[in-house]
Amino acid sequence: xxxxxxxxxxxxxxxxxxxxxxxxxxxxxxxxxxxxxxxxxxxxxxxxxxxxxxxxxxxxxxxxxxxxxxxxxxxxxxxxxxxxxxxxxxxxxxxxxxxxxxxxxxxxxxxxxxxxxxxxxxxxxxxxxxxxxxxxxxxxxxxxxxxxxxxxxxxxxxxxxxxxxxxxxxxxxxxxxxxxxxxxxxxxxxxxxxxxxxxxxxxxxxxxxxxxxxxxxxxxxxxxxxxxxxxxxxxxxxxxxxxxxxxxxxxxxxxxxxxxxxxxxxxxxxxxxxxxxxxxxxxxxxxxxxxxxxxxxxxxxxxxxxxxxxxxxxxxxxxxxxxxxxxxxxxxxxxxxxxxxxxxxxxxxxxxxxxxxxxxxxxxxxxxxxxxxxxxxxxxxxxxxxxxxxxxxxxxxxxxxxxxxxxxxxxxxxxxxxxxxxxxxxxxxxxxxxxxxxxxxxxxxxxxxxxxxxxxxxxxxxxxxxxxxxxxxxxxxxxxxxxxxxxxxxxxxxxxxxxxxxxxxxxxxxxxxxxxxxxxxxxxxxxxxxxxxxxxxxxxxxxxxxxxxxxxxxxxxxxxxxxxxxxxxxxxxxxx
Length: 576
Description:
nine-stranded mixed β-sheet, 15 helices, 17 strands, disordered N terminus, Rossmann fold, alpha/beta, 2 domains, four-stranded antiparallel β-sheet
């Protein structure tokens, strides 16, 4: 996978990047994170989840939904949260992932409404000795599952590589954790129904996974074992919900810290941000995941015929397939009425699912790429400011790069944070700086003709006064809107109408990542690289071997190459 090389952005640096700090905007952002007491009435989105086990594609070997190990026992409701129900040896087939031992476990947890649900996880024991002080610690690692099919869950995907690309991509990080001598538990935190992005379900599953792992025979853990949590993107969402719920749902756990990266803090903002972009498939995945968790919100009844058929087709898919299959879509294409996300029932649901409803009592290390093209930066920054306002010790680090590169950029900092938390080192927060940075404006969603809405989180520039900064922010938003619309028109001219799937095989293809203002994760210019064979379905199917400059989108870990020459499309070549 091609990545941008990025470095942490200094919080103290005096530059135009941070010159738009607005104290009034900071206060407004904090108002957006209201405590749980003002959450919407639960009756507007039902009172029960649909916990029917998620399906697998036809022909899937040993699909979890038909595996007796994943079936809930009759007495599940009588068990306490976190009670270990089943244990079996785990098959680990991911390259480079070699634990001393591994087990798949099942345990009692609670769904978004508190009903009993059987969740599962993988517990991996390290070969390395733990050299830190005290007892060997436990890390709960949340993969960005971001999927709907039962086969996409980490406990299955770890045994079947190339099933969920996000699981494949995170396995090297688990290897790093094991090398530190940590025990790792990786929960299937979206539950047996794969309720992607349902916060309460995710948080409960993470916390109960820690409880269950501590009681696993032979793991060498105990109730007093210190635990920490870590996750990026969709995994950061599950980690953040677990951190917020820990005080009320699992006060018995000895949690010493949580690392949360690239977190979608406000899923309504994120839905509008990704609508109309190359990542639109994630909007569909999240819509179905929330429908499973909150069927009472009535979203399924608002789908048109195209929407009903699409969601049925989407139901067993993992993130890579879904995102590459539905680029540049608009949610309005799938619903009976436009702007459905702004309906009262869904607004209540989004308020219920917005992070910032409780503040953790333990330290948080949080990081986010400031010009993230997939998950907007500013809501996550505002979430950090909310935690700081409630006296949670927070260290927030903006990174340069893009969403995909943000994970490997931030992970060394995560390791350092975990080492400090387990050693008992003093944690230095930077809340005083975070509070001032909350004035950075969020560029509003931009309407793109024929493709819905998206947004840009790249901070604007301006003077330090409130009036001039606001004017500069508006000017930046206008320029960004024009650039995004122009880029979209040009790339569409290259791609043509219809869906395009391109796979590339060959040697010598050198590609560097570039974050375009369009909000796509694209890479530009395969310099002097012969594409030995290009197999395409779509308007570019005639293309074969050639030497050319190309646009490459990295979607769900896959390279999708738009193989028509950039200059012919009117897109200027980038210099590297």
